[in-house]
Amino acid sequence: MSGKRRDFLKNIVRGGALAGIAGICAALGMRKNKYQCNGKCSDCKPDSSAECPMGGDGYVWQIDPEKCTQCGRCATHCVLAISAVKCVHSYSMCGYCDLCGGYQRSDAKGRTTGAENQLCPTAAISRKFVEDPYYQYTIDEDLCVGCGLCVKGCEMFGNGSLYLQVKHDLCVNCNECAIAAACPSDAFRRVPASDPYLLKGGGA
Amino acid sequence: MSFKFQVSSFKFPSFRIFASLRSMILLLWIGFSVSAQAEFRFPMPEFASGYEHPPVVVPAPSTAMIGWDVVVLLITLTLAAFLVLKRRKRREIFLLTLFSLIYFGFVRNGCICSVGSVQNVAAGLFDSSIGVPVTVLIFFAAPLIFALLFGRVFCAAVCPLGAIQEMVAIKPVKVPPAVEKVLSMVPVIYLGLAMVSVATGSGFLICRYDPFVGFFRMGASFPMLLVGGLLLLLGVFVARPYCRFLCPYGVLLNWASKLSRRHATITPSDCIQCNLCADSCPYNAILEPTAEKAPESRGTGARRLGKLMLLVPVLIVIGVVVGGLLKDPLSRMHPTVALAERIAGEELGRYSTTTIESETFRASDTPNEMLYEQAAGIKGDFAVAGRWFGAFIGLVIGFKLIAVSILRKRTGYEPDKGTCLSCGRCFKYCPVKEKT
What we know:
- The complex is a heterodimer.
- Chain A is built from 4 helices and 6 strands, in the order H-E-H-E-E-E-H-E-H-E.
- Chain A is α+β, with helices and mostly antiparallel strands.
- Chain A folds into 2 domains: 31 residues; 144 residues, no CATH class.
- Chain B is mostly helical.
- In chain B, strands 1-2 form a two-stranded antiparallel ribbon.
- Chain B starts with a helix and ends in a 21-residue tail after the last strand.
- Chain B is 61% helix and 1% strand.
- Chains A and B meet through helix 1 and strand 4 of A and helix 1, helix 2, helix 5, helix 6 and helix 19 of B.
């Protein structure tokens, strides 16, 4: 008898648990997401009728280049052996300088492009002559480790056309990004997967 | 100022370069003088050669796999339930485990995972502005629903974290049941701490300290790989140490499985009490049959149960008090509080060096007072969260004591529905054949 009563109670509790799980999922699934931007980004105005783009679809991690301080942790804290963060070059913002703060070390001995004069520790930046006195700087992503040394140089001496971004063909989109947890300037945030980059210079 | 430093550091090896450098300096100065009006120090030149810059390549994230993951999850869960409840073949369950290890672990790099999804759901519950993607919700709910219906089949053959430990459990020894019972509180505490962390915005602890994800991704920080490696080494002798003594999602699955509608049984028919399966379980999840004669009278048991029920609110109150006291140590897991303490310490001259965090904060020109105020506010959140945490732990301890004190009559060997991982090791030890 007591066994039957226990089974009956169990059925009720189990039904309650199932209903609870279903209820939580329904409530959270219907909700529009404003993850981490809380209405601060231009797409999410809480008072406007516009829907936040971070709806039910996924989101991915990205670096806000305005907040990034080039601390160097992107290169060391990514779970991947070689970071998914790479330097991106906004060509439309570049001054095409001969003397490039992102390319050459400030203590460079002479104006040659020798390895000892290059800022990039992996020689991922190559330069190509365009016309006198302009040079085009290109990042070789296979070599770039996302250390941000060139970004720092470009910010200090140039236009800031070099900046760091999470490359989504490499990023494994961890639930908690290890770099985001270590970022000292809160530059990492989740962005909708449909619009996954925070590009400088209009993305050109 | 910045380019003076740059120019002075260059030597001039030849006249040609010197000339071009001079034009560069000129350009620098012009750039500087117009920077007040113009956006850039060095505006993009107008090229006479008709040069056009290459496009900026920004590859889109691949979302194709995500829908597929849900399909694979549901199929493997259904298959696991079928294998555990109907086929009852350890080898087949093991093969499914191996598949899950390869797919959810090495192919999908251990993310997305149900264990971590608890935090996303909690984040959504604590903060009404956070939505949770449907995929994550399914990864959270499906294993729990399956546990409510069929037991912990997710642990048996779907979870990649369980699977990697299952592979190394070569020589399992028995952990004394009393030690097992006490250590089973650790996952509850871990779950509570993870919830505190999510509620206060301090990050996802379960993901940060996931011991095996480093192996799935073939790379992680050294301490992470070391802890993962030690756990696997321990797992050779103590089967599935993470699942039993750490996994926070296992706590929920344990509760759900206790209510399960159907559950794996050791014997396909009636237990003949042959004792053959008694030592087959490496997880201490086989309950022995109870003695014929009740060890105590009904009245003694009822009185003890009454006392324990009165003890539960007392334990909760103790938990609330202790949880409130934990405010300061707990709040250090929030980066803002840690930064505020660091800055305060540096102001007092307690440290001789600065950290990247403190340097970044100083560079941002935010007044210290604002940071301290923020940190104080966050500490207030931790005081509330800490009390809830304490109450939760008190409640769980109370219920565990009650569960231990209740004697259920068993006429045969049965799996403990809460802790049984439905791995199927005991099946082959049972000599009883299925009823025909």
